[in-house]
Amino acid sequence: MCGIIGYTGYARAMPVIIDGLRKLEHRGYDSAGIAIYREGELEINKKEGPLANLLADLEDNPDSCMGIGHTRWATHGVPSDKNAHPHTDCKGRIALVHNGIIENYASLRKELILEGHDFISETDTEVAAHLIEKFYRGSLETAVRKTVSYLQGSFALAVISRDDPRTIVAAKKGSSLVIGLGEGENYVTSDIPAILERASQLYILEDNEIAVITPDKVSITDFGGNPVEKEIFEVDLEPIAVEKGGYDHFMLKEIHEQPAAIRKTLQGWIKDGRVDLSALEFDEAFKNTRKIYIVACGTAYHAGMVGRLAIEKLARIPVETDIASEFRYRDILWHPDDLMIVISQSGETGDTLAALREAKRRGIKVLAVTNAVGSAAAREADRVIYTHAGPEIAVASTKAYSTQLVVMYLIALYLAEIKQNYDSEEISGLVNNMFYLDAMVEQVLKEQDKIKNLAEKYRDVESTFFLGRGIDYAVAMEGALKLKETSYIHAEAYPAGEIKHGPIALIDDGVPVLALISQDHLVDKAMSNIKEVKARGAVVVAICKENLQENCQECDEQILLPQVNPILAPVVSVVPLQIFAYYMALFRGNNVDTPRNLTKSVTVE
Ligand code: AGP
Question: How far apart are CA 546 and CA 555, in angstroms?
């Protein structure tokens, strides 16, 4: 969601904050702002639109050694200069940036207005600035502590005052906040990669904690004022790659990084031809598992759909896959031997974390699959398996998805062995096949120009359908999501056999239908459904395996996939859909890496 960066030290603050904002832009790009301390004043600049708008007018401030910055994804109030953060109190003495939602802002705002406070923005955040003003008696820390006791909802706050050229006060409840430790300088941020080049030693704030950060010291207390002893968290991560490496967009670069990411994610988990997750020291929980809940959002949820089919088929354990925002309001029939698997690229998705926390509250074991080292999901789950996709910058997720699939297969194969519910020949065949996935993805990437031509042909359509049966339906869901996100075209995924129960009414002359055909045992059924839509005027693009080419003769176009094992097919069959979404966005003149209305990390409910 919104990105936060703050710096206090003996060097110039502005370049550090700008660099941090660049690395945070994918978290929110409808406006950005900076507050810098200078000679007893807080200089505030904020601008609607992408970060470039702010930077265009920004003058460097060579004297300033402290400041805070923010990239916004609007929740309360339209994207505009006045709604952009930082927000200030009536006198401009206090400036703060916020990520999260202050749920009781309306009543607080009413009271503060009655007390004489002047509000400038439509945001929920501004109440925090005025509350701090109300409670401020010379100690920013005390005023922030008092303020947070009035706030309901979730917040990560970084606050500065013109009375103190050195101190940032940070507070956390619900939304992530991390403090980077340097020599004579310290940082605060919502996202580790924003400061990774500068600080690899971190304090990770937990809920209900306040940090007072100066260049030489960080002191942490809980909301009640009790000191908190923190262990230093060392991150061993490559600094975020902000270069596009010769590609025009991060999305295309990340699509092409998939073979390497798949190899890296597999590394270390396969020994002597067997998947071995014993290093997790979680075998007891795996053995006892009676039922699995896979909970995630968006693309990660689609990876979970594949995970469900793989686990049920290979390990014969019942699995439910749930959208996190729905899961937490279901009346789950919990059993102590249930296992929850949460999947999240960022490890910070609010809905997913809420589900994770609910499971933990019920005493259920949780395994997190995430790409973000040190993220809330990684820290709060009982165990974590990392996807080694590397930093994913494009908002539309690609390499995170394929590596999530790889981890789901590893879990399914390991559970199959542990539960001894398996056909050993099938399992070792699949394990062996996993080593070829990277090469198969390479092969599909070579179809890029053909897919680009298809995108050029269909660039002006208003509506598309993605059809598949079985595991292909899960991929159809991901293909449709990708196209919606980047091209803003209506894209609907349906189980191929279900379309005749209503949605076929939407099929008309020239409507493109992308049909996933990778399941040998379902090909005839799928083709019957394809004939039904063709008979109503659809143009059908088949994404089909080479060996099923003959069956797909009646489709208008074919993109061929290598002969992958049907269970593993999603890793390969999603690639043409990612490339298609990329080029559709490009030809329609959209912002490929930062599509409208979206953000990389959705931390609010
Ligand atoms: C994917 O292209 C999306 N941007 C989005 O659906 C994303 O997958 C979802 O918000 C979940 O994010 P997470 O994996 O970081 O939890």
Answer: 14
